[in-house]
Amino acid sequence: MNAGSVAVVVTEEIGVPSWGLYELSIPCTVFGVPQPDLADPWYDLRLCGTRDASPPAPAKETGLSLRTGHGLADLASADTVLVPSVPDACVDEGAPMPRALITALRDAYDAGARMVSLCTGAFALAEAGLLDGRRATAHWTHTGQLAARYPKVQVDDSVLYVDDGDVLTSAGLTAGLDLCLHLVRRDLGSHVANQLAKRMVVPAHRPGGQAQFIDLPVPATDDRSLGPVLDWARANLGRPLTIEDLARRAAVSPRTLYRRIQAATGATPLQWLLDQRLRRAQGLLESTSLSVDRIGQLTGLGTANNLRHHFLKRFGVSPSDYRRAFPRA
């Protein structure tokens, strides 16, 4: 397992909008703060400006310009290239993106870099042709524009992020943090990702997708009563749990519990349980030498064949391949 170098693109010559600082700060926080007790060496973070050594241009009303220590030439030597966002004008007004940036992105991909975008950064990857024929996402308010402008891209507005191997895209704002923690999980294992998430006071994984935010950003139901029920379910994943079991625990009807869990998590109760079982299986595969059959029993997935079926469908790899990719420390 290896952290490697992460080059983050900063389009400072057009001006970084104030809200865009959030997406820029996410990779800086995840990859730029050393965590020697979790992994040493940690990531080598580079902020790469699109004007190289030129002085920054004045920012527009609600933005600011930044001076960086690296330029576009440094993208090609990075293990991971990340585009947090692009200027609003490039998305909403059709303003052209810097051609030097698009060329640099293509060169970095050809050199073997893993390409990542957060929110509207997907427009830069799409402009470079790196999303052609691939499934990708962006913030749901921009996915329609992305699909219309780049018809070769298979745009999915229902997910928090898409992992297509060497090219990854995320929805907006907090979904960018979900994707960055996913990258840490891929690179350094679930234990490191989980511990880092705890330090950042965020969940290591959020079930459901951004579809849960499109029509109902804030659930209409008060889900505080769900906490003890969901905690109990996580502690009893080895049991053959049903929605009736959870409803009895919550002292509500199965129909009411169904609505509350779906409103709070974006998933049905059975989907949520399956996700928790698969996450538990990941941890056991990484941290123990237990057989796949035993892990299936402990996680409530039953037989080894059933675990393999759901694991492959959810993560795209078999439990055995996953274990080989994340050997125990």
From TrEMBL:
Record carries keyword Transcription regulation: yes
TM ranges: none
Q: List the CDD domains.
A: GATase1_AraC_1 (cd03137)
Named from the GO MF annotations, one term is: DNA-binding transcription factor activity
Which InterPro entries is this protein grouped with?
A: Class_I_gatase-like, DJ-1/PfpI, Homeodomain-like_sf, HTH_AraC, HTH_AraC-typ_CS, INH-QAR
Entry keyword annotation includes Transcription: yes
Q: Which UniProt keywords apply?
A: DNA-binding, Transcription, Transcription regulation
The protein's name in its UniProt record: HTH-type transcriptional regulator CdhR
Organism from which the protein derives: Actinoalloteichus hoggarensis
